[in-house]
């Protein structure tokens, strides 16, 4: 069975033509082209060759347009894994690791990852964090563990 985009209302046609002019060869422009070609009863295989996308993707965009209209052609945020920490939290993790525990009134003189973890949570910097996540953040922040302290990586 052939798949085609539904008939366009006049306002949709105008908006799609405007988008095609402004978006050109961008991803959104390709999606608009798919719909315009499909409304002219061009087949999925032909559209696929014309826009340089796999037929599965052409079908996906036609279905999405038929279900959601023009708004369905815009990219959606990929769910992915949410970020663990924001930039402020990252900076606080690095700052705490570089601060001497003694200056904070703590009874030890060097940080372990578990001690850092405990202090980050107690101080409300993060609600929860693993020792491995701390280690990775410190390494990303340019620190290395040297002589029982986290210090900036030598250049």
Number of helices: 7
Number of strands: 2
* H/E topology pattern: HHHHHHHEE
Catalogue the unreliable spans.
none
Structural class by secondary-structure content: mainly alpha
Largest beta sheet: strand ordering? 1-2
The radius of gyration is: 27 Å
Describe the global form. Answer: rod-shaped
Largest sheet: 2 strands, antiparallel
Beta-strand residue percentage: 5-15%
Cα separation of the termini: 63 Å
Descriptive notes:
- The protein is mainly α and 155 residues long.
- The chain has two domains: 10-73, no CATH class; 87-152.
- The chain has seven helices and two strands, in the order αααααααββ.
- It has helices at 10-23, 27-39, 44-51, 55-68, 87-98, 113-122, 131-140, and strands at 143-146, 149-152.
- Helix 2 packs across helix 4 (55-68) and helix 6 packs across helix 7 (131-140).
- The model has no long low-confidence stretch (mean pLDDT 91).
Would you summarize the structure shown here?
This protein is 52% helix and 5% strand.
What attributes does this structure have?
155 residues, mainly alpha, 2 domains, two-stranded antiparallel ribbon, 2 strands, 52% helix, 5% strand
Helix-strand blueprint:
Elements: H1 10-23, H2 27-39, H3 44-51, H4 55-68, H5 87-98, H6 113-122, H7 131-140, E1 143-146, E2 149-152
Antiparallel strand pairs: 1-2
Helix pairs in contact: 1-2, 2-3, 2-4, 3-4, 6-7
